[in-house]
Fold this protein.
Amino acid sequence: MATEIERKFLVAGDGWRSSVTDHLDIRQAYLSVTDTNTVRVRLSGRAAFLTIKSAGAGLTRQEFEIAIPFVDAEAMLALRTGRIIEKRRHIAPAGLLRWEIDVFAGDLDGLVIAEIELPAETAEFERPHWLGAEVTGDPRYGNSSLATNGLPSTGR
Amino acid sequence: MATEIERKFLVAGDGWRSSVTDHLDIRQAYLSVTDTNTVRVRLSGRAAFLTIKSAGAGLTRQEFEIAIPFVDAEAMLALRTGRIIEKRRHIAPAGLLRWEIDVFAGDLDGLVIAEIELPAETAEFERPHWLGAEVTGDPRYGNSSLATNGLPSTGR
């Protein structure tokens, strides 16, 4: 079990692309979204994971990530609730930390979100010039909401 | 991924006890129960599993069982929906097959259910004298219903 502290931002422009060192194509969907937890299946590159997170829109959530066979993950997508989210995750190192910039495709085309995982809620980090408005804790930008409700109306 | 074919019966009396060769104490709870799937965490003896099953009350369901660390399973119980089910599972071999007789405890005290897993929907099997009414496909006796709704009123 891990405790995850991450902050999430919209992105203004393409300035982040020059910092990118790697990317990963991700398909994911939710098996369930309840008052107490979410269960997500993710195919990420050639790996696949089942991830259980405690509910809540705050900075800190309990997270359990379990590696599963890729073929099982593909079969589980059929049991999903909501849509399959497709995105390309770009990795941009930032000192000891790193930005992950998710460029969504399909129904969510046009949405770009940058996330940074922090060692503590109070951790300092540099804000690159391409960072837009913070959406940490905004339920409309949670992956489970994007899977269920689609693109926020102010997201474009 | 496995496809599970099992039949489920109430139990009349204690006649099954003489066939039992082993038992296992089980604690389990559901992380979610949706229209398309259920996600269950189970602590079974010293092992722990996360099990995803496709929805449906029929004989055949898709099932994915994933071994997880025991401490993670214990922590996941706190994220459950419904109650924790506690039961002692008795194993009674029957030729190439085996009966599993679940004696429930706690809120479900008094309930005893026998299950047999079959190699095919049409497979023949012997019905021991202690077998009661069949409840295969009866949603009231599904573990997710027992966790959410408790003991069926006709279950005693």
Observations:
- Chain A touches chain B at residues 1, 31-32, 34-37, 39, 50, 52, 54-55, 62, 64, 66, 68, 71-72, 75-76, 79-81 (CB under 8 Å).
- Residues 70-77 of chain A form the longest helix (8 residues).
- The helical segments of chain A are 70-77, 143-149.
